[in-house]
Amino acid sequence: MDKFVIRGGNPLLGTIRVSGAKNSALPCMSAAILTEDEVVLENIPQVRDIETERKLLTSMGAEVELGYGRAQHRTTICCRTLSDPVAKYEIVKTMRASSLVLGPLVARCGVARVAQPGGCAIGDRPIDLHLKGLELMGATIVQEHGYLEARAQRLKGAHIVFDKVTVTGTEDLLMAAVLAEGETLMENCALEPEVTDLAALLTAMGACIQGAGTSTIHVQGVSKLHGAKRRIHPDRIEAGTFLIAGAITGGDLVVANCQPAHLSAVISKLEACGARIEALGPDSLRVRGDGPLHENDVSTEEYPGFPTDMQAQYMALATQAEGTSTVKENIFENRFMHVGEMVRMGANIRVDGRTATVRGKTPLSAAAVMCSDLRASAPLILAALVADGESILDRVYHVDRGYERIEEKLRGVGAQIRRMGNVFGNGKKA
Asked: Which partner from 202, 343, 387, 398 sits 20 to 30 angstroms from 42, CA to CA?
């Protein structure tokens, strides 16, 4: 099992590039189910969840080519034949996004059998809203033996009002609606860039969608979609993580291949803490941590608010800021799993329900710590970058689910980090 060995104390200097967004790539790969033609996706990150999605689509009968060499960040998907519309448990048990094949499978095949999804253990993320929407569109849902089975001769347009904002629910039902008969009106939709990325691909495939990126989406169903090409947005969570890495280490870092407009809430909070951030053109940001950091409270919200996927990284920053910061988690009820490990490194953090109180500035010391999920892994890397001594991070396969070769990227800007064990993606030893 792979580990990271990190020696802290080096400021990060230079340029670091952001990969494509996993959370955009996964629904866009699922959207290929909706057509018999080829769908080509560019700027695909080489992370474990993408490989899991490839295995999932292949198991259903699709042809999926993940590029190598000069085309290593491109995938071509052809779902001409879907002989087995089942998302098997042994494939999807580690990936929450498996629920995203439910809507497109029912829309294309009239039937879908999907194992109830796994992924990070960060709290209850029910797919009840997916199922409720599909039922409104005429699907019959049966739940048994750990699987969800949905059937419909052809889905019908419907008026769907989400009880709460859900990104995957919005994406799943959007994909279902594009092949449904008639018009679908979806209200209280998620505003995330990942939704607009998916809608742009579907539109290029021939779908009729209005309002993506707003709370109300109108879809006029069509009888057939065709192939298309789409370049995936840069990963705003990876970009935000690198911005914090530059600030927390007192570095001077250029974060390239990002979309600053997607990072407004993160940039605002970092500047409020004392980091200096400036735009270097349309797709690059420079962060400097050459001044003292000071406390600032944060509360997670749906986009365009401060993202829950950046909460843990911000908490690592708060340990190095003067004063007391509070971090309130409003999206998931179990997203403080990193706190115990950070406390072992010397952080002064107290948790009360969904609020964490962080007292800084606290010297951190190296320790052996364990990654418990994807987003709880990043703050441990950030803490280790400023800790005194050499830290060992275990179970970094969680990191590999969403960050592409993060150790190589960080080493390229001055971090002392190496991997012990099999390197994901090429089988080499560190």
From this structure: 398
